[in-house]
Every structure is written in C-alpha cells, then in structure tokens.
Amino acid sequence: MKKIELFDTTLRDGTQAEHVTLSANDKVRIAKRLDRFGIDIIEGGWPGSNPKDRAFFEQAKDLEWEHAQLAAFGSTRRAQFAPEDDPNLQSILDVETPIATIFGKSWTLHAQVALGVTLEENLEIIRSSVEYLRAHGKRVIYDAEHFFDGYKADAAYALETLRAAAGAGADTLVLCDTNGGTLPFEVQTIVADVASRFEQTLGIHAHNDGGCGVANSLMAVAAGARHVQGTINGIGERCGNADLAVVIPDLQLKMGYSCVRDEQLRGLFDLSHFVYDVANLDPVDRSPYVGRSAFAHKGGIHVSAVMKEPRAYEHLEPESVGNRRRVLVSDLAGKSNIHYKAEELGINFKDAQVAREAVTRIKELEHLGYEFQAAEATFTLLLRAQQGESTDYFSLERLRVRSEKNGTSEGVSEATLAVTVQGERTLIATEGNGPVDAMSVALQRALLGFYPQLGEVRLSDYKVRVLTPQDGTAASVRVLVEHTDGETTWNTVGVSTNILDASWEALADGLRYHLLERGVPTLEAPQPAAV
Question: Which of these, 142, 159, 180, lies nearest to 108 by C-alpha position?
C-alpha cells in the first residue's frame, strides 16, 4: 500500500476558525492525541505571530513523541530583510522543531499587489528563505499559497515558484487552494501536470469554501500527491479546511492508501470528539464517519435490512472508525426498529403482539410530540410497561408550585409535594432556583429516605422546545432532561401544554429509570413463589 504523509494543522489553521480559541495547554493535549493516533507531522503554530504559539513550542520541547514530528509555520522572508535578519525565519529556528513549513506567493496578483515586489524578486524571496532554513538543518515543506488560482492566471509563473523552492532544497511542495474555490476536476488536472514536472513529493492543502475540501484532497492524491494537510473535523478559517476525519478513512478504506494503523483508525471517533470537546465546540451529528448519525437508521425497511445484512444500508462497518450503529425510534419505525432497540437494551419481548402494540403506542406518542431518539431512558420505561412490567417506585398525590416576584427581588419559587412510597405518604416543601428546580429538589428529597441510591443522581441538563409556536402561550412543549450519577448519563422526555407537567414527567421518569437500572424492586414487584 502506498503511504500518505499526514500533516495536521488543527493547532494553527484550525485556531483561525470563528469561535475557536486554544490555550497552549489545550494545544499540547490535542497534539498528544494526534501523535497517538498516528499523524506524521503536527503543525504547532506560527511562533513569529503570537506568544501563545511560542509557549506551545516551549512546552513541546520537554515532551516525548511516539511518532509525530512537530513543524513550525511561517512566511518567506520579508522583502526588506536578508534571511539571517528576518524576524519570522529566526522565530522558526528559535523553537527548534525538525520541520519548517513556510508559505510563499504563487499567484502574480499576490506577488505584485500584496507583497509589492517584482515577479523576479518574489522568486528570490522564496529561494533564499528555503536555502536559509535548509542550511540550518531543517526539513522544509513549502506551501505554495494560492497555487491553483495562480496556475489558472499564469501557469508558467506558478510553476517557476515551485522550481525556486525545489531548487533551494524544499523536499515537499504543497499546492494550496487557499481561497477554497477550486473544483475537484480542476485539482486533478493541475496536480497531474505538476506531478509530471517535479520529482519532489507533492502535497495538497485544501480549504472548503466551495464545499470541496475533502474531494479536492482525494483528487490530488489520485493525481499523484502523497502529502495531505488538513484539520480534525475540518475546523478552520471561513468555511474550514479539508476534514482529516473524512479524508483519512476515505484514503485508507476506500482508495487503498496507508495512512495509520487499523487499530489507530478505530480511534478516529474518539479523536474527533476529543478535539470538539477541547475546542468547546458542539459535535456535528451528521459528519461522515464520526458523527452520531453517520450510522443511524430510522426507517423500518432500512432497519429490517440492516438486521439481516448491515451492508444493505451501510458503506462500511462503523467499528472500523470507532463509531457504532444506532437504530432510532420514531413514527417511521417498524417492528424491526423496536426489536433491535429492545435487544440493545436487554429487553426480550414476550410475543409478537407486544412488539406490535409497542410500535402503535410509540407512533401515537410521536404524534403528540414525544421524541425518543434522544430519550432512550423514557423509551426503556415504555417498553417495560408495554410488557406489563412495573416501573412504579412512587405515586404522585399532589404537587403545587408557586413563584413570587416583586420589583426588587430576584423572585422565589417553592414546591410542595405529596407522594406515596411503599405505602407511606410523604409531604415536603422546598425552595429552588425557579419552579422546575424547586420541583426537582422536592422530588429527590421526598424519595431519598426510601431510595438512598438517588443521592448519587443529579440533574445535568434541561432543554425545552416549543412544538406548536402558532398556539402562542397555549403551545405544547417538549422537555428533555438529562440526569447523571457521575459515571453514566440518561435522558428522559415529557410533553404537555403545561411546561411544569412536561418537566415533572421527564424528571420523575429520570429517577425511575435510575432505580430500574440499579435493580431496585418496584412497588408492585412480584413476591417470590412459595417453595
């Protein structure tokens, strides 16, 4: 298998994305995960541009790297400086990385307008910058900025800029689609032409402004590139960079190239979500390969086929990239969905009639606004109830929630709750930070004496969605609640035209589910048979 050199620029190009800010420590954490995954080169940043990137390289000097090499990024020298006097080139040398990645101008427009130099002066700037870094023992990767635009404007000059870099000692020539507007068929044609003229390794650096970042990277490899740059999850300036979380499995599993070891590829899902977490970004569920929805099946016919042969509706095994198959339950579901989910949850139906009744009941509830795809705990309780199993750990006698507010105070909410547990009535009143919090606190305190297991449970998320906004203040709402015990999380749902009723339903089911999972007997638990 032909090897592809993977070059990750999440720590540099990725940090130029809107809403992305990484500290030096964040960058170290991501770099270590990239190294473990098998990335060949990690571009740590531009040390000549900001103190944060210099701090990263300082920390990185003292770390051991399993596989990856670090690269420092920067531009070619400024026109007014000799290489040895250029602050940018000196900053690259100062951080002591084995690899220097520098970019230069390939487009006549940029050389003459942006830099304000002659075309010959631009070639000398490229040549002397590469020579200087090579003389100091650096491997030089030359990023030909705006190469595809420059090639289309003046192919002869764009190729001359590559010759200047290659002649000065750059061993990898990276063709950059900096504006991200080149189309895949153009990339293939241009890369093939360049490959026929140069012995040096060719690389591709694609942006996604035309939605073709991944496709352009693949076409470049098909045309002869063997070095691929990108970011994890495609984060980057404007519309982002080529997404390595898609490029890597495409190259390795679809095109037969070697990128990382198979066991490393199975860590792709975890790597993707780790980067999202450190960057404080929400994962994109519909992302290929690593999204939660990438192998999710909703239609009953699809699920029926997947249960017989996964290849019927899956282009590869989700486990090969560390993901997993998910079957969704909705009004589009059939018996196959219900059977699959039941097996996944460890529930065995008594007979086919129970499954049919479960499908009917789910569709009725979906029509009312319930959604079980993000509330599997509620779905579990529903299936148990359909089987005739008891999930009753307490019964509500009365609930009153009262909120007060005057012109000067922040307001006070109070919940008074009466429940019956194991034949014993409990009455409790609590205050909370708002009516839902007061209700949640009251329920947990009322039950804690009977079920001490609930002491480890806390509310970790609460979401409300208006289902019928056209009804104004009489609209139906769906409340989605997440609980955690510190190790696992589970979600429950409630629907009503009264937000407190919907909240109560979701909160109560969340506690019932935890008790059920802990194996606590219910109020109606069957007594052992006499011996």
Answer: 159
Considering only CA atoms, which of 68, 52, 12 is closest in space to residue 232? 12
Q: Are residues 29 and 147 in the same domain?
A: yes
Residue pLDDT, tens place only, 371-418: 776 678 888 888 887 777 777 889 899 999 998 877 666 778 899 999
The half-sphere exposure of 302 on its side-chain side, counting CA atoms within 13 A, is 14
Do 47 and 71 share a domain, yes or no? yes
Packed helices 335-344 and 352-368: angle between N→C axes, nearest 10 degrees = 100
Nearest Cα neighbor of 414 from 438, 433, 396, 391 is 438
Count of structural domains within the chain = 4
Output the DSSP codes for 229-255: EEBGGG--STT-B-BHHHHHHIIIIIS
Virtual CA dihedral for 187, 192, 194, 196, nearest 10 degrees?
Answer: 180
Contact of 416 with 442, CB cutoff 8 Å? yes
Please identify, among 327, 347, 377, the residue that sits at the C-terminal boundary of a domain: 327
pLDDT digits (tens, 9 = 90+) for 132-154: 999 999 999 999 999 999 999 99
pLDDT of residue 531: 31
Task: Say if residue 184 is in the same domain as residue 295.
Answer: no
In the chain, DSSP finds a helix count (H) and a strand count (E) of 18, 16
Instruction: Please tell me the distance from the alpha carbon of residue 223 to that of residue 202, in angstroms, as a whole number.
Output: 10
Tell me, yes or no, whether 166 and 27 share the same domain: yes
Least confident of 100-109, 145-154, 489-498: 489-498
Q: Are both 241 and 319 inside the same structural domain? A: no
Q: Does 282 lie in the same domain as 249?
A: no
By C-alpha distance, which of 466, 444, 467 is closest to 457?
444
Q: How far apart are alpha carbons 414 and 401 in whole angstroms?
A: 6
Question: Quick one: CA torsion of 6, 12, 17, 20, rounded to 10 degrees?
Answer: 110
Segment 125-130 shows an average pLDDT of: 98
Q: What is the chain's Cα-based Rg? A: 30
Domain that holds residue 369: 355-391+456-520
* CA 23, chain centre distance (Å): 19
Full-model pTM: 0.73
Question: Cα–Cα distances in Å, from 139 out to 81, 195, 202, 260, 513?
Answer: 22, 20, 15, 22, 58
Q: How confident is the model at residue 280 (pLDDT cuts 50, 70, 90)?
A: confident
User: Cβ distance 104 to 76 under 8 Å?
Assistant: yes
Task: Give the residue-averaged pLDDT of 422-431.
Answer: 90
Q: What is the CATH number of the domain that holds 321?
A: 4.10.430.20
* CATH code of the domain containing 504: 3.30.160.340
Is position 344 within any domain? Answer: no
**Looking at the structure, do residues 230 and 267 belong to the same domain, yes or no?**
no
Range with the poorest average pLDDT among 202-216, 274-288, 354-368: 354-368
Least confident stretch, 18-32, 63-77, 453-467 = 453-467
- In this structure, are residues 385 and 405 in contact, taking their beta carbons and an 8 Å threshold? no
Looking at 200, 233, 259, which one is the last position of a domain? Answer: 259
> What pLDDT does 326 receive?
67
